[in-house]
Amino acid sequence: MILSSVSTPLLGLVDTAVVGHLDEPRYLAAVAAGATLFSVLFMGLNFLRMGTTGVTAQAFGAGHGDGVRQALGQALAMALLLALAMIALQAWILDLGLAALGPAPEVAALAGEYFRIRIWSAPASLANFVLIGWLLGMQNARGPLVLVLVTNLVNVVLSVSFVTGLGLQVRGVALATLLAELAGLAVGAVFVAQELARCPGRWQPAWLGELRSYRRLAGINADLLLRTLSLMFVFAFITARGARDGAVVLATNALLLNFQYFTSYALDGIAHAAEALVGKAVGAADRAGLLQVVARGLRWSLLLAGAFTLAYSLCGGLIIDALTGIEAIRAAARDYLPWLALLPLVSAWSFLYDGVFVGATWSAQMRQVMMASAALVFLPAWYLAQPLGNHALWLAFTAFMAARGIGMHLWFRRLAGRSASGTG
Question: What is the mean pLDDT of residues 43-55?
Answer without folding.
Answer: 82
